[in-house]
Fold each of these.
Amino acid sequence: MRTCSHGERSRTARHFAAAAGLALGLGASVYLVAREAGSSSLPGGLGLDPWPSLTGAVPALTFTLGFTLLAAAAWGPSRASLACSAGAWLAVSWAFELLQHPRVAMALLPHPAGPHTDTPFAGVTSILARHAHLGTFDPLDLAASAAGGVLALVVGTHALRSGAVRW
């Protein structure tokens, strides 16, 4: 097994980061173009979605894919960094999706209009409560997030195998 130079690792990291940028841009474009204003905790869009059943889970897939590749690029592209970042971003994505389930939201967080200024983390609690109570739980988003993590592993592993970086 040969070792790789810093330049080879840097080039692979740039490829990971570029792929992450494309994935994140695609997911953000769904929010900006396809989603209705106020349909999520993010700023509203134009509501121009002719295929809502097809584009609904796109952000869950692309954000998990993009953030996984971006984290792997930052940690140094390797099979281990891909696996760790995929697991971490899948957990984050699932946590935020499950937080939107009505039973979970009501059990864990006060309604965003309710008083929660007496806690040390009032700002964070307010943001999470807004996300939980204004978002919509969708099991398809859980599946799309998992697909995004798997896709990141496949794309990243292919890039590592076909590129100069070896493990």
Note: The two ends are 8 Å apart (CA to CA).
Amino acid sequence: MFPAFLIRTAIDWVRQNESYLGLSPKERCEQAVKTCHNLWEEEFGLVDKHLVEPSVISAYWAEVFHSSESPDGEDEWKEGILKRSSQYDSFVEWQEWFKQNNSSVYKDDLIWNGLIASAWAHTHQYDVMLVADSWEFVPATSYLPINEIWRFEPHMAAVTELMYEIWQEEKQAYAEIGFEIGEAKFDYLGKFECLGFDTKKYFAIWPAKAKRDKEIVAIGEIVADIIFPTSDDWYRALDNVIFAHDSLDVTSLLTRAQYVFGSKRRLMELTAESGIEQAIRQAKAEGWLVTSEEENASSILSEDLGIDSADIAAKV
């Protein structure tokens, strides 16, 4: 078990527990924090409250605002708070309105402030996390519904082990073409769909000939896209080939993972040799995957500088 699984499933247990149905959304969040605290002690030992509680709270409110199945009475409350938060372009103004209009119950604590931040984030296409005692907003990514987690749970151990084995092979493959892969731990418990790969920051140190600064490689998001690609409704779901009929096709998983990881590696290798735009053209010609994010980054670079990034590489 890894932390994100414990948090998401504990939250679901609280939200489905009949004994908590009469509680308010905030009171259920309090129960989720208590439940995760107890389970954490059983599974991992001592609880780091400064790390665990914000993670539980932000995950809880994300589940509330994304869930299509809510406890009785929650839908009307959720609709009201989201409608109001959507009217404020400024988070500070929204925060002040909420505090003033709920002054009889509001307390300056993580649960209330997490609610305020999460509601505004949801209606303005952000995700939210607590960093250094401050709620920070980052561009929203596709959400993984809890029912997909339960579908995946029987295969979780096997898939996670296989993905780590593939990543070890990838690091060796990067080294063979002149890259060095570094990693650094930071205080983040991650999203479930990343299978623990987002609890570290991975970065690539380019070969000397590339004359480029080291680059963060979002391995967690790559893993998520392999296992839980984004569907047409913007939510993530299990890959329907790898997990056809809820069974695990190991060969399909291995083939898909090696292709996606290999595509990233080949694009970086070509970029080191000839610049990003030429690298994208060559990678496509060779049949590798080039993501829309990679193409957009290339377009922005060209627009900002007015020249092909291959020329940049040649002139540095």
Note: Residues 250-274 form the longest helix (25 residues).
Amino acid sequence: MKVKRLYALAVLLAAALPLGSLQSGQAEPTIAAATPAKSTTTTTEDLRTRRHVVRRDLMLASLKNIRGLAYGVICPDNTADLDTAMEQKLKLLEIPIFPFKTLKSGMKPVDGLLEIKINKVPTANYVQINLIQWVSLLRQPRTEVRAVTYHDSMLSDDANLNKAVYQLTEQFVIDVLKANQSGGPSPQAKEPLHRKRS
């Protein structure tokens, strides 16, 4: 129940605040051990810290040992430049990546679909990144479903859409590298193949 509440909080926080990428050498945000009882104002830094903690505690585990991804930008406008911005960062993972346009109907990539969706809101664009993977239900392990296992988002004006896509993809790459840095097999340990859906 606590995990569901934290995930719901993560989605709400993601929609409320733009997120920049962590600069290299920048200290990881942490949650203060105690907060004043009368403090009712949430700062931008508080929201960033909470979003980081939710990603770290709830989403990073799903990024371990990813062997290959399909990726793309879902947007009503021309997405060639946005796909390129996404691809440039994903190449740092050194795993096979497949643009959505190369996938065939009824096929799926090895480990998931990484999508960036761009929705117009009255004064900006709501840009979100989702990793959709095939997972099994705990109550019925033989039941395989698609689920969002990683999510982040930010607001962006039209002029900065490339930057928003780049930043969200960069944070995803940082998180994948973090999830895979402590021992275990390399993310490219197995050669990815397209599988038919069952």
Note: The CA atoms of residues 107 and 196 lie 5 Å apart.
